[in-house]
Amino acid sequence: MQETTNTCHSQIVKKDCVWLVTYTAKLPLSMISPEDLVCECGERHDIDEVRTISDTKSVLSGPDGQDAINGVFEKVMGSTVAPQLTDFQVIGLKLLVSGVEVL
Ligand SMILES: [Zn+2]
User: Fold this and answer.
1) What distance in angstroms lies between residue 53's CA and the mean position of ligand 1's atoms?
2) pLDDT over 80 (residue 2)
3) Least crowded by CB within 10 Å, which of 33, 56, 68, 97?
4) How many CA atoms does the CB half-sphere of 56 hold within 13 Å?
């Protein structure tokens, strides 16, 4: 049997695409106070709804959108400074620019 190695093709993917990844994630329950449940509209909302934040991040990645999603996931969920978010969910993926000159 022939041994397979990873040296036969480059593992390096050129990161020349800018992706916009829109996602939702949930704030920790401990960050929600009873006052937060009373919304500006005067209605009380479900705690899950109040915890859910939505944001869009741009990321420089390769041509595969999944890599861009993974990059944003790591940025958002792997952050140690921000509150620890959970339930990361991608709701939008858009290729903004491709063929970016990377210096
Ligand atoms: Zn409301």
Assistant:
1) 14
2) no
3) 33
4) 10
